[in-house]
Amino acid sequence: xxxxxxxxxxxxxxxxxxxFKAPLISDVFPPRIWLLRKATGNxxxxxxxxxxxxxxxxxxxxxxxxxxxxxxKKLNFTYRCNMGxxxxxxxxxxxxxxxxxxxxxxxxxEEHRSKYPGSTxxxxxxxxxxxxxxxxxxSWVCGGxxxxxxxxxxxxxxxxxxxxxxxxFYFDGLVEPKKRSEWVRRRLDNGKEIAKIFRFIKxxxxxxxREMFFIPSGLATFARSALRTLxxxxxxxxxxxxxxxxxxxxxxxxxxxxAEDTDYLIFDTAPYFSVKELHLDSLDTVMFSRQNxxxxxxxxPTDLPLxxxxxxxxxxxxxxxxxFRNQCVASYxxxxxxxxxxxxxxxxxxxxISSISRSYxxxxxxxxxxxxxxxxxxxxxxxxxxxxxxQQSPWLPCDFSHCSVASIEQEVPLCxxxxxxxxAKEKFVRAESRAYAFMCSGExxxxxxxxxxxxxxxxxxxxxxxxxxxxxxSLLLESAKDVNGTxxxxxxxFVYAGNSxxxxxxxxxxxxxxxxxxxRSLWLSSGPETEKLRHxxxxxxxxxxxxxxxxxxxxxxxxxxxxLLLYLFLQVDSLSLEDLNAFLAQTLxxxxxxxxxxxxxxxxxxxxxGVQLGSLFIRGLALMIKANNTCGLPFKADDIMAWSVFDGxxxxxxxxxxxxxxxxxxxxxxNESWLAKFQDLMSLICKTCSARGRIIQSRQRLDSFVTExxxxxxxxxxxxxQSCIYSPRVPSPGFLPPVVTTIGQAFQGKx
Length: 751
Prior knowledge:
Blueprint: E1 10-12, E2 19-21, H1 25-28, H2 35-39, H3 43-50, H4 70-76, H5 88-95, E3 100-104, H6 105-115, E4 122-126, H7 131-134, H8 146-162, E5 166-171, H9 180-204, H10 219-229, E6 233-236, H11 241-251, E7 256-259, H12 263-266, E8 272-274, E9 284-288, H13 290-297, H14 304-311, H15 322-331, H16 341-355, H17 360-367, H18 378-384, H19 418-429, H20 435-441, E10 443-446, H21 461-464, H22 466-476, E11 490-494, E12 505-507, H23 519-523, H24 528-541, H25 548-552, H26 556-571, H27 577-589, H28 595-599, H29 608-630, H30 642-645, H31 648-659, H32 664-667, H33 673-691
Parallel strand pairs: 4-5, 4-7, 5-6, 7-8, 10-11
Antiparallel strand pairs: 1-2, 3-9, 8-9, 11-12
């Protein structure tokens, strides 16, 4: 459970009784986070000594518990969709057949047009309930099949367009403080399932079956961008997404809501259709009937919010009403029993509600049965959270104020420039940028990605990108500095190995080299100088401002990849020349390949480290989108999209080839026109890294093989990818950085 945020001032040293100071996490884990690991010879000693703060410390096998993927299948099947009322979906599908009726969305649309002549039927889509359904690609562990994903979305949209149905997509805009504990629980559970995935990959050298499916990193981020790219109205909610979806559907006279969340049965809004049961070819699905549910339970629609609260919601936790539910079951004597204990309990609670007067007084009496330590206003707040604008409830007084639905706008914003804040808000609502939520709350978050906690070579992805995030934070909070020029501390909820998420990490924003420009100069100005400033600022976020001219000379999408690879290879010492060859070859070979061609690529095996690198690259792209938006769009949005620069299958194929020592001819698929580009990019990256003391070494990790095509092609046969085009002086073989006694000393002067 998330607790009160604390700063740890001192941590005990492993040797003797001395102490070393542990400042904010941004000081504990600065850019070259691998140096301490090199300098410390005894791994066990290192882990014990820095365990309180070291995120690369790996959990033991015994800490993950369970076997197989059974729990993951249950947990991940509907993604956010089980955030609704506890047990209601099972009851509706198993014990209330009248509440589940077959529906054809084409027919529903025609009926809507007949009822409202001249209007276009609108279906509101809760996108977070759909992103898993949209990802139909067979490959999901290698980083994502993004062109295939884009084509699936295009087909989805065109199917509804052909039926004359307009789609409006909603995405979650925030995690409410009251939902943080549930968010944390899910992240920790997901971590256990990711560990199972990697155990499977390392054992069988193959991708697990679909029952262990885990969404690729960045799926929600790129889904928002994809829908905008495809011309769809895409909205990011300023409050709970299901509340805004229900409100939009009601007040815009929409034909229905497409989702998988039982909260839409509780809201008094437009009809609710199942995305899980949707057959896209025919547009057949299931409609959940609010009226039939009420008939089965003997309740009025205005009673449903109270039913939801007693069963358990995110406002009224399930455990708070457990004793009362048991009392209802004990006193419930009826012939109509449910198919299981949970269903019988729902019928018992409904029977109780129907037996009391529908009034505020009855609710007050019910609130008195709550445990002594519970907030007596929970039931009022829970019911009110289901009331859409203009609606009233007989269970609440007429003058009850609408205040319980959390909203970003309720925050006291950290950004003090109101014009900039308004621009950020408009971009946020249009799902162009999520900066507004951060500028209001000062909190940032990121969920799980496919990274192996047992891999001690690769640091946590969240920590690899920490220095870049610190610079982005300084841009967004530039107007929030105090009189001493100090930034407010940022609270980060980021998943990485060893982080229990009991409290947020405290991160200090860091000025850009040479000073941090204001958002006014980046967002509101124009002209050549402004464009130059935007590019410089973007590169400075990734500490690449010194090579601005070289980067700007590249094709935009290639420049994006080059920036990301430079950042990664400067941050992560264990990345090898083979890794760089694979990334560059993937970038060049992606050109001209269709979604179908990429989907048909066959991998003879799956390598766990290659899986992590694919996920790492995509996570980096997501951060570059954030930086690009913050800096005023120095790059076109499409240039940073995953489908423009990355394909998981293709990268993994290149990774396997590079680490088996195949020729450059085969790595570049025999295309000699890509050779010069490959050499130029390799030279730029190696030269830049060398200038900062980072020598990219060769380290082949897989068994070598000789391909049939080796030696073909003019000018390629004798070039091996193990040779760095730029060859700076290599340090002496015995070189190691000096042994340090504190974490802070490991990074002094290391940039």
